[in-house]
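Holo prediction. Input below; ligand is 3-methyl-2-oxobutanoic acid.
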Amino acid sequence: MATSELPGAGTTGAPTTAAGAPARPARVRVHHLQAAKQRGERLTMLTAYDAVTARLFDDAGIDMLLVGDSIGNTMHGYATTLPVTLDELVVAARAVAGAARRAFVVADLPFGSYEGGPEQALASGVRMMKESGVAAVKIEGGQRSVPQIRALTAAGIPVVAHLGYTPQSENLLGGPRVQGRGDAAQRISDDAVAVVEAGAVAVVLEMVPAEVAARVTEVVAVPTIGIGAGPHCDGQVLVWVDMAGMTDWSPRFAKRFGEVGAALTSAARAYADEVRSGAFPGPPHSFEA
Ligand code: KIV
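Structure of the complex:
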């Protein structure tokens, strides 16, 4: 059987110490991502915004965790990602980076924290790295973000680029719409080449036609991570609440792999019923004098 390029990949046969205790799994690092692409091994990524889900997804063997600015829509109840601040993301990223033992943790730099130019991007990136302990930052934009990617990379901060539909530009793009159809396909490809030349270690492709994502995946040497970008990317990312079935609505490109929302509602109902009936707390949950 072929061995994986990713440390501790899969959940069976987990390494143990000489004493038989589970060993701390080795971290997924930048060079593992590149090696996985070369080997044709698919990378898995999910968003996470707190320590609880980070640990669950890390234990499940998810390779990369994204502390996305989608925290705005999914957790904070904002209509878009635009109000999310660097302060909010640093706190969430610290929780995720602290809980994940194996996954490569990436944090978004939010809207307004890097568009001002390389100096602003560097200040935001350095703060994120120092205060959260993540392994990389993600910024949106192609050629326009090249100076920022160069500055971050020169400072030793790995950057994941984000192309296609970029939610921080949703007002300009007219909402969540497929990007890169027709003549615009070449621009996505040119943007991908530009961000990789500038130093990006991976490229997220959001809501682009599958053929365009396949072409980008062919032409760049770093992994492409698709979301609504078809099956030909080197990896896939989903927003975890969509993946787990926590919401009434999710985008067409997302798939519900569970009904965790329904399970949570059912647990909360069972708890409320037992409190109301007096069945909980019982003797096992009470202390003696
Ligand atoms: O913030 C986020 O969750 C993202 C993904 C949609 C890739 O950027």
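The longest strand covers residues 159-164. That is the main takeaway for now.
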